[in-house]
Specification:
This protein is α/β, with parallel strands linked by helices. Helices cover 51% and strands 12% of the residues. Helix 7 (200-214) links the parallel strand 4 and strand 5.
Length: 295
């Protein structure tokens, strides 16, 4: 997938070089001791820059046309592709850090458009993690567990549902926002990393958390928005073995997320340079129609 911003930046750089060349040329031309050969070299350089500028302008126009055509196609087929794709699936949303209304709205819209019942559980974790508080909140039999093991067990409970002794014990100190019920099992999990893990205990906890999510044997997808003001966290998802979507505020991103949550090909998708596997998992096809009554 082409990144138009990269080509626009390249185009701007050529414009700048062209302007500098012109200014230098004017300065040289104003001198009394400039040789004709020097002027000819300068003229050839300016002509070369002008050709590069024209080529990049044409390439930029073509890329914009392709982008508009792709977006129009996705928008026109969106309802058909999404209909029924997540019907009956229970999806949990985990914020590693503070909750983000924009991300949650995009996930909820994705689930609604794909016929899912909605987010069955949302948890937003409080970072950094205090080891002493965690140890003090756990039952005596668990107080000697490492933070990595604690994170792993929380992730496993999030997926499995049912009895959740770790969530019950740690919600007061580790959760800053919560919706839904921890007792419900999740068929898939969406992760949004909005915090910062700058200390060793928090990193150990998150290592266990991601490990537990991977071991849950359900699709787990890390997400971010195209307009996110935070640094991209796609590299974090990739490093921890999670699939990702970098543009869930767009129809392309919503389709990619729905396909991944339904068990589609793992990878990193979306519209930014972080989407190393392209905009969408392949193949994307409408689901088969249900048979007509009596058919």
């Amino acid at each position: 997938m082409f990144d138009l911003r990269y080509h626009v930046a390249s185009l701007a750089a050529v414009f700048l070089a062209l302007i500098i060349g012109i200014l230098v040329g004017v300065g040289l031309a104003a001198g009394t001791d400039v040789k004709d050969s020097d002027r000819q070299v300068l003229q050839r350089q300016l002509e070369s820059l002008d050709r590069q500028n024209q080529d990049l302008s044409a390439e930029n126009d073509l890329l914009q046309s392709k982008a508009r055509a792709s977006e129009a196609y996705v928008n026109e087929t969106y309802d058909v592709v999404m209909d029924g794709r997540l019907r009956g699936e229970s999806v949990a949303l985990l914020f590693v850090g503070q909750s983000d209304d924009g991300v949650q709205e995009a996930v909820e819209q994705t689930l609604s458009d794909a016929s899912a019942p909605g987010i069955v559980e949302m948890e937003a974790l409080e970072l950094p993690v205090d080891p002493q508080e965690v140890a003090g909140a756990l039952d005596q039999q668990f107080s000697q567990l490492t933070l990595e093991e604690v994170g792993r067990r929380l992730a496993e409970e999030l997926v499995r549902g049912g009895d959740t002794p770790f969530w019950d014990a740690l919600t007061q100190i580790l959760v800053q926002d919560h919706q839904g019920a921890t007792t419900l099992a999740a068929d898939a999990v969406v992760v949004s990393y909005t915090g910062i893990a700058s200390d060793t205990p928090t990193r150990q906890f998150l290592d266990g958390l991601y490990s537990g999510l991977r071991r849950g044997r359900v699709p787990v997808v890390g997400v971010e928005r195209t307009d996110s003001r935070r640094p991209s966290r796609i590299a974090v998802y990739k490093a921890n073995g999670l699939s990702s979507v970098d543009s869930i505020d767009t129809n392309v991103g919503k389709v990619a997320l729905a396909v991944l949550l339904a068990g589609g090909p793992e990878g990193h998708y979306g519209l930014k340079q972080t989407a190393e596997d392209g905009p969408l998992p392949k193949p994307i096809e409408p689901l088969p129609l249900a048979p007509l009554p009596g058919g």
